């Protein structure tokens, strides 16, 4: 037995042992570690033909080695390298498009690895956390540069490999070493070795080691083919007599490493323990730079096991480098025989993950490491594939290739992982299985399962993932502990309360069904503890919490002792039933006070602390105590003496709750000459009235006769806050004369008056006599913060409805009458968390075991340079003159210019699609117009249409001018049905007849002139947001379509500039007369247009046309195309396009402020343009820096604002905490 075996059993650890605390990966066929293990154990071959979104293999393939060609059509590829959740990391779309997808993958996978480790990423900010990344290529940057992107953002984001580790360090604010390692195929395992060494040297406390590889160009495959290194059949056949090369593959893996002592102390997960590692180089051992050497690998193996304190003969399994090249395999097996093959009691098992997923190159080492860790955890070795005829010496002797899944029988297996670089850098890591983890016993108490995300859509995805993940084997406590304590909490939140997995599943289903709304924590809310007056009591209140909550019990016992000394009876006895339950004021008010104090103390023990306290009537006593103004004994004196004096008036008065404002009530009560008064102004629409019993009966009759709802205040036979309290107030002031209150530590808001008074005897006299001004006080509190949470500290909510009427706040009750207290207050805790209230979850759970849970549900959007796909795009030039609109264009004028019709752009795209040789009909989707332009009808331009394959059978399209100005973009799809909306349906709703002259007058008023085919309106009718029209024969398809779109102007009653169209579907054409129907969607600037032939059959539809009307925003500019030269024409009355990105000569979007355009819209337009997005996608509640604005962008934005508005805005302000909306408002 080695020292490691002995130390694990005794529970001790070596100071040189390093824990693999977290893991995450994406490999071909597997998007997670669990999926990766499933792939391995099912012996899946994840290699496929090279997808066309990387490059078109037909352009580069040859069956024989040839210059500029590759002999392999295959590879291992990730499912999605274009998608990224940029918003999650606060990265602007512009920045994301410039980033190497390897950086994007690293950010997401490193986050997942930290989650797996049970380490909150936000908790690492500013700490000594190292980042070590293996990366050997940067093909995205190479292609980006070749496409003409030369600025620093593209260079740093896409080309400089050194930025990859720094990107992660920057994103999480990590302060340890941040290093990119390039030793070719051994890069990522060298990164693991370096990370381990940095931990042992004390350079960092946590290290993230990763490797990444993404294949976007054929260059390396061509080079390897020339060197006969690639397998023609695209399979790595390690250990096979037929090994003939490797196949290239993509992948990313990340591991989180900690010193084992630290991981155990912190309770982090431990997947495996790294015992030793070593790095070496072959030197001149093989005689060739690119050929491996036996002695170099042998020396590395000896050094690694010496570092681990083990004999090489004790290793049970080695995950080989195992590329499947004949030379590489021969050398690796020889070194293993020499070092680990001697003196063995049982054969050394071998395998290679490359047989499943291919050679992930710079990520190969970490792929092997993750596989090795999984073998250590599961004690099963998956089979290596494609070795149907094993190489010599692998079926007998000391080395044995695993060709069928087999168990690892050692009690604590020793496993090695090898990785070799093409230039001779070798690395080996030795690991073993982790110490056994002990699950936390579930005690049956209710727990809170917390989920959160940065968007509602992501939260729903998270809920669905948890629902799938949770099963009967999940431990309730440990699951909830991990979610609450070991995960970051984001803006959109869900908290499900339960004591069993079944209850959590039910809660998740309710949320997914829309029955439970999510919470939102945009910022830390103002937390208000609200203490109501009498009326919330119920028999049995406090009993359960007294038994299960140490904090509640201690506070209640302290209050009980104070009441015993002050009044001679026991609060605890009344609550627990040891003494008779009484509803008299003299007893119930001190009991309620004690319960309120105990509840508040209980909440504080859970980490829920008030920013403000407010009390109502007797509730002010508990509020003052919690604020620190009164000691427990002083508070007991106030409440006991107050209630005893009030008891002396019992039976003389009564109180009514009424549904009317305090002002209205005071008018109704004038005839009672002050004997009946407003005792409490609770909300804008409710108050409490008090006075003598007989008069209150009359008041009730008055209210009933006026139809005003009212009800008697339950179990109250005194008239608090009325003239009947005058003597009580005077006596109380005298009895409390020696009271010496303290300055409150917490903001105490008085409901007696609006001043900041000392809470002395005079104050408590006023408290019992004066009107309770809750309405005014709460309104002032709510105006102090944009986000307030009011927690009622009472056995049952009394005032939360009033708060909801006063203003906007999240209201949460502590307990509910007759409901199980622990479950109720636990559910309330979940509500507070969902609203953004900080909770000390670590204390609440009191420890737990970190268990696997679903990782964050990324919300991917595609970020990719269109010009990058030059090998996969279909690019065609389309002559506008060939679209059949040349003559017709002479009859279309706008402000004296000829605009290029949108319908011409549609026809240009569809004509290219028809030219692909497919017989299927096509539709356009998600069309966006980037520039509206005018042309010279005597010299029509040429357009460039590009179609790019997309997943799901779609092709993305772009339409540019000949010189590269982007006019339109969208998606092309095949097939699809057309609307069945009947033309008669439109006739029934359009009854107002419109003459052609009236329409022409409307058009002229907005600058349009129609002649020739464009002036073919025969009849038209208008209805509510709707129009139907009959047109004469118009000619070509684009002319018909453009003419039919004139009904939009009819439906809206004004000109409208199209910004985009959801869907364009054309199934035929009109050879003669045709009809058009336009209908505006209710309350939105969106219109649907349908065209019908003379048989009333629909042959074209444009649905979801988003427009900008002249009424909603002034027009901006047109771009004139004359003889192939682009000129910008600025006019106060010409249509304004959205900000656009021009992909060639002009790299910056152009936003021009037009006369009369609202400054706020101009600011938002500039912000969106700099960030690389559109104004409608801006979250104006967030700061610019949180949207991804960096110092370079800040300088650009400042320059834009200076030029457009003449205002100097410092970059420091733009990068500050101010949100976008506030910034825009400050510039208006």
Task: Summarize the structure in words.
The structure is a single chain. With 1228 residues, this protein is of the alpha+beta class. Helix 8 crosses helix 14, helix 11 packs across helix 12 and helix 19 crosses helix 23. The chain is 34% helix and 21% strand. The protein has 6 domains: 412 residues, Peroxisomal Thiolase, Chain A, domain 1, CATH 3.40.47.10; 78 residues, Alpha-Beta Plaits (2-Layer Sandwich), CATH 3.30.70; 312 residues, Malonyl-Coenzyme A Acyl Carrier Protein, domain 2, CATH 3.40.366.10; 114 residues, Thiol Ester Dehydrase, Chain A, CATH 3.10.129; 130 residues, Thiol Ester Dehydrase, Chain A; 69 residues, ACP-like (Non-ribosomal Peptide Synthetase Peptidyl Carrier Protein, Chain A, Orthogonal Bundle). Strand 27, helix 29 and strand 28 form a beta-alpha-beta unit. This is Acyl transferase domain-containing protein.
Task: Give a quick set of tags describing it.
eleven-stranded mixed β-sheet, twelve-stranded antiparallel β-sheet, 6 domains, 1228 residues, alpha+beta, Malonyl-Coenzyme A Acyl Carrier Protein, domain 2, Alpha-Beta Plaits, flat, 40 helices, Peroxisomal Thiolase, Chain A, domain 1, disordered N terminus
């Amino acid at each position: 037995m080695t020292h490691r075996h002995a130390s694990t059993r005794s529970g001790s650890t070596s100071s040189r042992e390093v824990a693999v605390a977290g893991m995450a990966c994406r490999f071909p066929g597997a998007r997670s570690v669990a999926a990766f293990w499933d792939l391995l154990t099912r012996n899946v071959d994840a290699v496929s033909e090279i997808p066309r979104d990387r490059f078109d293999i037909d352009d580069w393939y040859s069956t024989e080695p040839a210059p500029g060609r590759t002999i392999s059509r295959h590879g291992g590829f990730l499912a999605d390298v274009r998608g990224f959740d940029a918003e999650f990391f606060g990265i602007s779309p512009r920045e994301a498009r410039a980033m190497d997808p390897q950086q994007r993958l690293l950010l997401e996978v490193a986050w997942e690895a930290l989650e797996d480790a049970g380490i909150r990423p936000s908790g690492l900010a500013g700490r000594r956390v190292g980042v070590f990344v293996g990366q050997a290529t940067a093909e995205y940057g190479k292609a980006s540069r070749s496409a003409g992107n030369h600025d620093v953002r593209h260079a740093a984001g896409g080309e400089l490999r050194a930025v990859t580790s720094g990107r992660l360090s920057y994103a999480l604010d990590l302060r340890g070493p941040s290093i990119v390692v390039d030793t070719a195929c051994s890069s990522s395992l060298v990164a693991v070795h370096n990370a381990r060494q940095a931990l042992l040297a004390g350079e960092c406390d946590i290290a993230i080691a990763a490797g990444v590889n993404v294949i976007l160009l054929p260059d390396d495959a061509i080079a390897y083919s020339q060197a006969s290194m690639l397998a023609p059949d695209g399979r790595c056949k390690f250990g096979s007599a037929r090994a003939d090369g490797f196949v290239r593959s993509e992948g990313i893996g990340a591991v989180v490493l900690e010193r084992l002592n630290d991981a155990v102390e912190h309770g982090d997960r431990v997947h495996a323990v790294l015992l030793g590692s070593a790095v070496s180089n072959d030197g001149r051992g093989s005689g060739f730079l690119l050929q491996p050497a036996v002695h170099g690998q042998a020396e590395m193996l000896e050094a690694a096991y010496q570092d681990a304190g083990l004999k090489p003969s004790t290793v049970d399994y080695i995950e080989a480098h195992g590329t499947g090249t004949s030379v590489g395999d021969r050398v690796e097996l020889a070194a293993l025989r020499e070092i680990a093959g001697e003196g063995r009691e049982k054969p050394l098992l071998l395998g290679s993950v490359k047989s499943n997923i291919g050679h992930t190159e710079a990520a190969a080492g970490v792929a092997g490491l993750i596989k090795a860790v999984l073998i250590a955890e599961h004690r099963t070795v998956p089979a290596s594939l494609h070795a149907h005829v094993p190489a010599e010496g692998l079926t007998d002797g000391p080395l044995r290739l695993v060709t069928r899944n087999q168990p690892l029988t050692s009690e604590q297996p020793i496993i090695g992982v090898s990785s070799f670089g093409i230039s001779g850098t070798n690395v080996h890591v030795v690991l073993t299985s982790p110490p056994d983890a002990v699950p936390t016993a579930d005690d049956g108490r209710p727990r809170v399962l917390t989920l959160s995300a940065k968007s509602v859509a992501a939260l729903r995805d998270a809920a669905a993932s948890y629902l799938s993940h949770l099963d009967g084997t999940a431990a309730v406590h440990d699951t909830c502990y991990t979610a609450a304590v070991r995960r970051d909490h984001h803006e959109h939140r869900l908290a499900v309360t339960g004591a069993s997995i079944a209850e959590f599943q039910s809660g998740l289903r309710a949320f997914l069904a829309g029955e439970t709304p999510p919470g939102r924590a945009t910022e830390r809310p103002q937390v208000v503890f609200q203490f109501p007056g009498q009326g919330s009591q119920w028999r049995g209140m406090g009993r359960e919490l007294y038994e299960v909550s140490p904090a509640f019990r201690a506070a209640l016992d302290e209050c009980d002792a104070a009441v015993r000394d002050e009044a001679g009876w026991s609060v605890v006895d009344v609550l627990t039933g040891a003494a008779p339950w009484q509803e008299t004021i003299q007893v119930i008010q001190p009991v309620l006070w004690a319960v309120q104090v105990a509840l508040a103390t209980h909440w504080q023990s859970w980490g829920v602390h008030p920013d403000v306290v407010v009390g109502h009537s007797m509730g002010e006593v508990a509020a003052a105590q919690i604020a620190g103004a009164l000691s427990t004994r002083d508070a007991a004196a106030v409440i006991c003496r107050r209630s005893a004096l009030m008891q002396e008036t019992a039976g003389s008065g009564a109180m009514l709750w009424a549904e009317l404002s305090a002002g209205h009530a005071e008018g109704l009560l004038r005839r009672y000459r002050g004997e009946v008064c407003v005792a409490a102004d609770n909300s804008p629409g409710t108050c409490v009235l008090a006075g003598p019993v007989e008069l209150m009966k009359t008041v009730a009759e008055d209210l009933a006769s006026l139809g005003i709802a009212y009800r008697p205040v339950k179990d109250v036979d005194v008239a608090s806050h009325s003239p009947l309290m005058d003597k009580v107030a005077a006596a109380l002031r005298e009895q409390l004369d020696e009271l010496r209150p303290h300055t409150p530590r917490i903001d105490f808001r008085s409901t007696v008056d609006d001043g900041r008074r000392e809470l002395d005897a005079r104050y408590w006299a006023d408290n019992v006599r004066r009107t309770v001004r809750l309405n005014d006080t709460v309104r002032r509190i709510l105006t102090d913060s944009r986000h307030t949470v009011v927690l009622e500290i009472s056995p049952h909510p009394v005032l939360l409805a009033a708060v909801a009427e006063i203003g906007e706040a999240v209201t949460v009750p502590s307990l509910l009458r007759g409901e199980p207290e622990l479950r109720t207050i636990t559910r309330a805790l979940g509500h507070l968390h969902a609203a953004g209230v900080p909770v000390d979850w670590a204390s609440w759970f009191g420890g737990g075991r970190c268990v696997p849970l679903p990782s964050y549900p990324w919300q991917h959007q595609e970020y990719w340079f269109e010009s990058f796909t030059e090998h996969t795009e279909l690019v065609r030039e389309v002559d506008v003159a060939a679209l059949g609109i040349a003559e017709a264009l002479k009859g279309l004028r706008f402000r004296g210019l000829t605009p290029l019709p949108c319908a011409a752009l549609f026809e240009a795209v569809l004509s290219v699609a028809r030219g692909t040789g497919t017989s299927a009909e096509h539709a356009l989707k998600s069309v966006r117009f980037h520039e509206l332009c005018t042309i010279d009808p005597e010299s029509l331009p040429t357009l460039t249409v590009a179609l790019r394959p997309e997943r799901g059978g779609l092709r993305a399209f772009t339409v540019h001018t000949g010189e590269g100005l982007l006019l339109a973009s969208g998606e092309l799809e095949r097939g699809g049905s057309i609307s069945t909306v009947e033309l008669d349906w439109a006739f029934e709703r359009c009854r107002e007849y419109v003459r052609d002259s009236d329409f022409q007058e409307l058009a002229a008023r907005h600058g349009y002139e129609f002649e020739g085919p464009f002036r073919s309106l025969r009849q038209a009718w208008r209805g509510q947001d709707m129009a139907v029209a009959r047109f004469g024969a118009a000619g070509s398809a684009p002319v018909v379509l453009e003419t039919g779109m004139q009904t939009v102007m009819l439906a809206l009653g004004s000109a409208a500039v199209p910004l985009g169209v959801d869907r364009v579907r054309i199934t035929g054409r009109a050879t003669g007369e045709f009809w058009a129907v336009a209908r505006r969607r209710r309350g939105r600037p969106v219109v649907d247009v349908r065209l019908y032939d003379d048989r009333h059959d629909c042959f074209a539809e444009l649905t979801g046309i988003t427009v900008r009307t002249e009424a909603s925003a002034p027009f901006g500019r047109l771009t004139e195309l004359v003889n192939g030269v682009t000129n910008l024409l600025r006019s106060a009355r010409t249509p304004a396009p959205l900000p656009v990105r021009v992909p060639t000569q002009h790299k910056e979007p152009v936003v021009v402020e037009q006369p009369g355009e609202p400054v706020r819209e101009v600011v938002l337009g500039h912000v969106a343009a700099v960030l690389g997005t559109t104004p409608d996608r801006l979250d104006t509640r967030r700061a610019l820096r949180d949207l991804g604005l960096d110092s370079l962008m800040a300088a650009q934005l400042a320059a834009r604002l200076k030029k457009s508005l003449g205002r100097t805005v410092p970059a420091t302000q733009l990068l500050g905490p101010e949100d976008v909306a506030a910034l825009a408002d400050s510039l208006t």
